[in-house]
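Dear colleagues,

As part of the handover before I leave the project, I'm documenting each prediction I ran so the next person doesn't have to rerun anything. This entry is a single chain, and its sequence is reproduced below.
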Amino acid sequence: MGDDTEEPPTTPDTPTSSDAIYYAASSFEKGITLPFKASVDGSVYGKDVVLSSQADVTGDVVAEKDVILEFRSSVAGDICALEDITLGSKALVGGDIHAHGDVTVGWQSTVTGDIFATGDVILDSDAQVIGSIHSGKSIIVGWNSVVKGNVYAGGAVILEGHALIMGTVYAKKTVTLGWKDTVQGDVITEGDIDLTAGDNVIEGNAIASGKIRLGRKSEIKGTLSEENPDPGVKPPSPPKECPGVKIPELSEFSAGAIDISIGRRQDEKILPGAYHILSTGGKTASILQESLRVNVNLFSTR
């Protein structure tokens, strides 16, 4: 009678760093989502990239479509996306933002760098940009938000109240200040300048191809020039091209034949090796097919 003892799984070679990068990029076509409080010591590339709440990336983020940073998530480097970039509440970006679409900076979020977008740039209330903003369309600066640089818009510029721009505003269309807004530099536009909401201040010059309308307690401390045929508007700079993603070569692996099933609220040590199906809590956790492998020391269902 033959021996029916099950052979232990074969142990593949230790994966290289290139293999690890490839696995991170294996979800590239579907996008990459970093879970709650996840941390990546490096850069992230994907079709779409989502940083869940309190996730952080120490490098850059590059996406072929959209990038979303959720509550209190952060990117220390630059962000580049071929479509939209959205920062949720209290998100942090330590470098420049380049979007070939729209950019939204959420409530109490901070960007320590410049923003470049082909579309609109919207700052929600209490947002801060420590740099300049370049928008191919319009720029909206929300309530109590601050821009510590210049603003360049291919469309209109709207300040929604208690907002501060510490540089100069350049716009192709109308510049509108809400209530108690301040521009410390000049306002130069090929449209109108509207300060009729009141208590607004332009500390520099106001130069417009259209009309300049002042409201109650609004003030222009520099020179005022309206119906100027050549106000000297500087156009926004476009976002840079996003770098391509080069997938490193993957070593060849074969799936194993052994299945592992772990019940709810159980821990089980799994030796490094090649397996077939790993399931936990009655749900399939992973199916290892041709050219995929696993090297796991601890598998927890808690």
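Confidence is low (pLDDT under 50) at residues 8-28, 283-302. The longest strand covers residues 283-287.

All the best with the project,
I.
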